[in-house]
Amino acid sequence: MMGSEQDTASRVHEHTSSRCPCRPMQRRTHQKSRNGCRNCKRRRVKCDEGKPSCSNCIRFSLPCDFSVDQIASNDTVPEDASAPPVVTPTLARRRGRPLKIEKWILNPEASGHKTITEPRLHFPMPKRIADPSPPLNTNDLELLHHYITNTSLTLGDNVVLWRDKVPRLAFEFPYVLRLLLAMSALHQTHLHAPGSSGYQQLATAHHNIALREVTGLLPTISGKDCSALYIATVLICNYHFAKPPAIDDEPGMVEETGIGWWYVFRGVRFVVESMGMEAIFSGHIGPFPPEAPQGGPADPLETTSGYGYIPWERPLVSLAVMLSGSSTLGSESLIVASEALMECYREVYGTADKPEYRTHGKTYVVMRWPWVLGDDFVGQVQNLVPEALILLAYFAVLIQTLERFWYMKGWAKYTIMGIEKKLDPAYLQWIQWPRNQIELERTIEKSTTT
């Protein structure tokens, strides 16, 4: 009897217990939601809606919709309406661990899954990241380091511009970056001439890629890229000067007289005349007018006795008189060129009454002369017009004042030697003065460096 009562009590207890197997199992209450991420919906699993990424997406290393939404909401760059829809894979698999996303991206058809075009949220990226250039390798990183720590200090008196501002511009415009690397490679060649053929190859490769891009962009120059194109054209000019003339692969009269740089110099003039200096010196390389020079490379010749003003007035006046009596076709333009050249001499060297003692490194003055001349002058040089060659010989003296910059080294002598080879012997006396000045300055330079 006692056992029967215990059995009955046990059965009553089991039936009334929530764990009683005889009772139907009740579902837990939960709040339904349709806000799960797309990956969970596609796999038909519960999404915990965790942000910035749900736990399922974290577990399987999938890009979660919630992280995309967050990036898109924080990005202030306007969305590109023309961007193509994102191609996403449709899984033909059972529920479970999904195929790794890397396989979809690298080879979607090899995985046996079809690809469909599915509208998806497109989140814009900054423009400079949206147009990627080939990644830098270790050689390029070495060149970039050398540019920032060395080359940038040698490109002009405005060190802040070349060391701090231009690299910032280069990160937005890849062709500027390539030209920085090209100049850095040539600088390495200048510093380490023996065994520097590898640097020459790197310089040529970067320069050629950048040159093609710059040439294509110049006709459509705008306020958005005028600063970059200005810096690019200046660097292309510097590159041309930095490349040793003896190995230059541009044959012909223009190169033999040292005036091949004229063509690349026209790119700088085009940018300035198209946009103006105020628009160019804005943004990364501002302000306008440019800041005062912060001190470029020290020139040991600046303090050398006998160095500075040279008595240029008499020989250039004699040249002007000769040109005024010339019957050469186009002599009027040659007279204008002579007057402009005298003005450059005056600003570089001063006069006998007011001599200049700091005569070197005035690039903006020296390059004003080719700036004001037209293409007809280059044509006269190509046609071996004696008066044009004589003017170019006098300009070579001004070029020598820029040889404090490593990329200009040797150009004065190279120019005068090319003119001597091509000039009619009857006119050789007219280039005696510029030839003597170039030789004298080279002698002074050698004496100060030995």
From TrEMBL:
Pfam families linked to this entry: Fungal_trans_2, Zn_clus
Keywords: Nucleus
Species this protein is from: Fusarium oxysporum f. sp. melonis 26406
Stretches the record annotates as Disordered: 1-35
Chain intervals with Basic residues compositional bias: 25-35
Record's keyword annotation contains Nucleus: yes
A GO molecular-function descriptor: DNA-binding transcription factor activity, RNA polymerase II-specific
Name recorded for this polypeptide: Zn(2)-C6 fungal-type domain-containing protein
Taxonomic superkingdom: Eukaryota
InterPro entries (UniProt xref): Fun_TF, Zn2-C6_fun-type_DNA-bd_sf, Zn2-C6_fungal_TF, Zn2Cys6_DnaBD
Biased segments, Basic and acidic residues type: 8-17
Annotated ranges, domain Zn(2)-C6 fungal-type: 36-66
Taxonomy of the source species: Eukaryota, Fungi, Dikarya, Ascomycota, Pezizomycotina
